[in-house]
Amino acid sequence: MRNYNLFSGIFLLALSLGACVKAYRLGLGSGGSPGPGFIPFAIAALLGLMSLYLCLRGVIQIVKGYTEKKAFKEIGWGKALLVLILLAGYGVFFNFLGFPFATFVFMMSLLWMVGRQRLRLSLAVSLVTAACAYILFVVLFDLPLPRGSLWQLFGE
Amino acid sequence: MEIGHYILYGLQVAVQPANLLYCFVGVFTGTLIGVLPGIGPVGTMSLLLPVTFHITPVGAIIMLAGIYYGAQYGGSTTAILANIPGEASSVTTCLDGYQMARKGRAGLALGVSAVGSFIAGTITIFGMIFLAYPLAKAALKFGPPEYFSLMCMGLVILTFLTQGSMFKALMMALLGLLIGLVGLDPFTAKPRFTFGFKELMDGVGIVPVTMGLFGISEVLLNLETKIKRDIYETEITGLLSSLKDWTTAKWAILRGTIVGFFLGILPGGGAILSSFVSYALEKRFSRHPEQFGTGVIEGVAAPESANNAAAQSCLIPLLSLGIPPNVVMAVLYGGLLIHGIQPGPFLLRDHPDIFWGLSMSMYVGNVMLLALNLPLIGLWVRILRVPYPILFPLILFFCAIGVYTVNNSVFDIYLMVIFGLAGYLMKKLDFEPAPLAMAYVLSPILESSFRQSLSLSGGGLSIFFSRPISLVCMVLVVLLLGFQLVSSYVAKWRVQAEKIKTYEGE
User: Fold this and answer.
1) CA nearest B197: which of B410, B400, B405?
2) Distance between CA B87 and CA B418 in Å, rounded?
3) Mean of the pLDDT values across residues B417-432?
4) What are the chain A neighbours of B417 within 8 Å (beta carbons)?
5) For residue A26, is it within any domain?
């Protein structure tokens, strides 16, 4: 049986334990002169205790056979993950492909793969966005956006 | 006399051509994002934060504040014409506003909402001027213990008022405090939780955090649901309608303004809460509560006035005490810090142009919104017709560029992706992101005031309970936490009792 209190409790418990260890290593200091790790340790410890309670609540719910209070809103991993991967990919290729081309590819993949738009429409919207963004951010605002190391290779 | 002089000074600042332009950009952008469901003021303010780096601090805060109160105006248009809350604070407007549109009274609903918002805005600005000044003077006597206790109280009230479990909201606040501590320790300059990334030495940036939690996660959630845009086709006439309608609306506007003004000041309050409370109060004290939801004018006038009043009055604790009462103000707080301005009691003395200029620009902004909003309804309706599958890639693109341009670093894009995923999962698992974001912003001051207090007391915690203001705040914190604990046990006990009753009945 899936229990999301238990899942989130375990995750937060692991996170707070890690933070406690890190904070302890930073040095806790004394009451009159707290060290850099004092506050992070106190916060992480409190969070850890609360996470432990959440885990226990989850275990009790499983043992007693309770169903989740609210119907869990199912996670739509497919689209969500695809969008996040494309966003991270935009970051990865931003410097390499350069701002205008990376923007075109990013927009194109979002419109076509996630938005399920027709190829022609996706192409047109992506082109217009990339061109307008280039004029606005690079030509008008003069923002230091990368031109792309790939094109520099060809230039050389 | 002194205040009159400052009001004139504020007007001078507000009507400078550059500031007028920033005010216009702010309220226009605010109305646009208010009209469009799926992107809120927090995301937009974070998006425009990098743009404000190149302008004066006064211009920056005028523009950012304009986005927030402009969004309240815009949200009502979508609620009335399409039955979609453009903003969360417009949910209640959908109930009666859309019904009014269906009855052919869309013009009146839009007119009442715009004029009501204007009246509420005007009254609030004067309330703000007369309240913020004495509040800031009183706050000069505050020391680190008072600040620490006040911020604790703000955080606990916010978690108390959030929808869903307070326990989970408190956990998120703690997580936000931890994230806010990433970076160099302010006392020893030792790096904390940076994991060797030099980009984290200055801490986790406010833009990737808020953009991820509120912008990206909202897009991911919207992609799963089909937003039905059933725009009501009607001729928009009778904006100012009959005198009888306005007589009914007038008192609702006034009541909504008062509720919004006070709920906006409270920590954890803001536009959303005030619109719900004012609608509930209006229905509770109405002579015909059964008609609410069928298209009564008070059901539009009260919440619309309340959300606009709250969107402006929440600036009072931010500017006079230096404590943001909600997450939108937390972003504004971050924006001011980036400009090297510390909001708080010294703001009025050291930067009078910011306080008085902002106050008066809000009045100018309200006039702009009133003049702009009604004639531009046709444009907003047309924008509303843009399908979401075309809109969301643009929102994501602007988020990515907005985040990148803060430090010209792709690292911030990765951070935004992480916080986007976190925000998405949090909403799915019933954890609220607002306490996390607010705690994250308050974390550095909370830590320094706590450490300063401990140094003052020689390590004893009694300092927080021996000073009157601090004591009151701490007592309130304990009471709220205790109340929540007791009420959850009472609720459980009632469920058990119900079960036993049913069992015995069988």
Assistant:
1) B410
2) 25
3) 90
4) 84, 87-88, 91
5) yes
Q: Both A57 and A97 in a single domain? A: no
The Cα of B479 is separated from the nearest Cα of chain A by a number of Å equal to 19
Tokens standing for residue B158: 């916010």
Size of interface A-B (CB pairs under 8 A): 156
Domain, as residue range, for A40 = 4-64
DSSP H stretches of helix in B15-105: 17-35, 41-52, 57-82, 91-102
Which pTM was predicted?
A: 0.80
Partner A, chain B 376-395, Cβ-Cβ below 8 Å? 389-390, 392-394
Residues A8 and A60 in one domain: yes
Residue A100 lies in a domain: yes
- Same domain for A29 and A50, yes or no, is yes
| Residues whose CB is less than 8 angstroms from the CB of residue B322 and which lie 6 or more positions away in sequence, other chains included | B139, B147, B333, B342, B343, B344, B345, B347, B445
Q: Is residue A70 in some structural domain?
A: no
Cα(B160)–Cα(B252) distance, integer angstroms = 28
Q: Within this chain, do residues A97 and A146 fall inside the same structural domain, yes or no?
A: yes
Element at B183 (helix H, strand E): strand B183-184
Prediction ipTM score: 0.90
Residue A40 and residue A19: Cα distance in Å, rounded?
A: 7
B306 has pLDDT over 50: yes
A78 shares contact with chain B (CB less than 8 Å): no
Q: Residues A97, A59: one domain?
A: no
Is A143 domain-assigned? yes
pLDDT in tens, chain A (156 residues): 467 888 889 999 999 999 999 999 988 887 778 888 999 999 999 999 999 999 998 888 888 777 654 545 566 678 888 999 999 999 888 888 888 889 999 999 999 988 888 889 999 999 999 998 888 888 877 777 887 777 666 665
Can you tell me whether residue B192 is helix, strand or coil?
strand
pLDDT tens column, B231-251:
555 566 655 566 677 777 888
